[in-house]
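Progress against Task 2.4 (sequence-to-structure conversion) is shown through the following example record, which the project officer requested during the mid-term review.
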Amino acid sequence: MRVVYRLCGPLALPEPEEIPEAGLSFGAHELLSRRDEALVAELRKALARLAAGLGGSATGPDPAGAVRATLDSAEMLIRGELIRGNEAGLAKLMPSFVYLVALPLVGQDRALRLSERTEALVDEELRR
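Structure tokens generated for the chain above:
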């Protein structure tokens, strides 16, 4: 999570006015601890913050819908990793999440650059 906030900082991204609610209900809430639920919410918020900051240049027929679907998908993957007991593996997924959230908003080239920057930040965090 700290990686996404570090990515948002240099981009001067604002806090989102609202966090898109999960559009899915798949029963994973009963399988996670409160701590894990808080982590899921915090990661979704961090990714939504990234989307909100990048949203000014959105193109396409429904970028907000695409971002909401991406946030839902990322949340499902995060929950799955936590259910499997693989919290440590979430860091390596962050570049993919950033790419998918950014793609409908800024296009492939910039989304890829943001993903690569996220990967560098993850690597830096993991070396600490």
